[in-house]
Specification:
mainly alpha
Length: 336
């Protein structure tokens, strides 16, 4: 890594040398407080990530209202939540321990955290791409949606993402002498996925706008016109928010990775580059905490299921009959 090692001949650099370069500045007495701050951030991030994604997973597996398991989109969300839960249970606590024990943690432990982090990011972004494809067909090509996107197709696609990521993690772990090459491949892969996600969402917006205008021209009803505009505006806001959050979380991290690899002149500002690297890494993992809110909570079926759990564990005063009627109403609304 040119910004850390000061030269471009880094492809054969060992994993040990890279981890040492990352920890050297944090071992300094004046930087120990910085390490503790990042440790606390990762600890807080882990708790939020585990709680949000565990709730999504429980909602799909339990499915008390019988409205979640039949949707291909929800199976993608389940796979995405499982990947993000792995971040919260393994990567976050591992990073916390590593930052708190700078100078004492074994280099092999740091290497394991890097491998797990890389694997979880690939799985998470791969499932986000799969969900983007699902939304593309649902919004831009609704007539082909039920034919193209089925439970079988989604299950196969999610399994391929997991198998590929696990095989990549094994290759990553078994070939430490090619650490930088393997890591760079993951960076390029994540960059390619992020561009595909953005492109698909922009094409979805374009096609959705075109279909909405055509429906408005055909319809003579002012109410239908107003509803079409309202729906298009709502979907437009949702897609823009998804793109914005995804870019805020991942583009700084991706840009920093390319900077570390190829900016030789940045070696004179290595400390700044390292701090920026840790900050952008936090943003990348923060995406795992936001995914349940960004994707699951905006679906009516998930909101109805979450409300069911809320009423079950935090019952209000009143008869059980009223609660059951409310649950049935929530289920009927979610089925629409």
């Amino acid at each position: 890594m040119a910004a850390l090692l000061g030269h471009m001949n880094f492809w054969n650099a060992s994993a040990q040398s890279v981890i040492d370069a990352f920890t050297e500045e944090l071992k300094a007495p004046e930087s120990r407080g910085q390490g503790k701050i990042f440790g606390l951030i990762y600890l807080s991030l882990s708790l939020i990530t585990v709680m949000g994604n565990a709730l999504v997973i429980i909602a799909v597996y339990k499915d008390p209202l019988k409205i979640l398991k039949n949707s291909p989109s929800n199976l993608i969300l389940l796979s995405l939540s499982e990947a993000d839960l792995m971040v919260g249970l393994m990567v976050g606590p591992g990073a916390t321990l590593w930052f708190f024990r700078i100078g004492k943690a074994a280099s092999s432990f740091g290497y394991i955290i890097v491998v797990l982090g890389c694997t979880s990011l690939v799985v998470s972004v791969g499932n986000v791409l799969l969900l983007t494809i699902d939304r593309y067909y649902a919004l831009a090509m609704p007539l082909k949606y039920r034919v193209k996107i089925t439970k079988k197709t989604v299950t196969i696609a999610s399994s391929v993402i997991w198998v590929f990521s696990i095989c990549y993690a094994l290759a990553f772990g078994l070939l430490p002498q090619y650490f930088l090459l393997m890591w760079f491949v993951s960076v390029v892969l994540l960059f390619s996925c992020s561009e595909c996600i953005s492109t698909l969402y922009l094409v979805t917006l374009k096609n959705l706008s075109k279909h909405s205008r055509s429906r408005i021209v055909v319809s003579n009803s002012l109410l239908s016109t107003a509803l079409a505009y309202q729906r298009e505006k709502k979907v437009f806001k949702v897609i823009l928010s998804v793109i914005f959050v995804f870019y805020v979380c991942f583009i700084p991290w991706l840009g920093n990775q390319f900077l570390i690899y190829f900016c030789k002149s940045c070696h004179t500002h290595r400390k700044t580059v390292l701090v920026f690297s840790h900050v952008t890494q936090v943003f990348a993992y923060f995406n795992s905490a936001l995914n349940p809110v960004l994707y699951a909570c905006r679906f009516a079926k998930f909101r109805a299921t979450f409300m069911y759990f809320l009423r079950k564990f935090l019952p209000r005063r009143g008869s059980k009959k009223t609660v059951r009627i409310s649950e049935r109403r929530q289920a009927n609304v979610a089925r629409l």
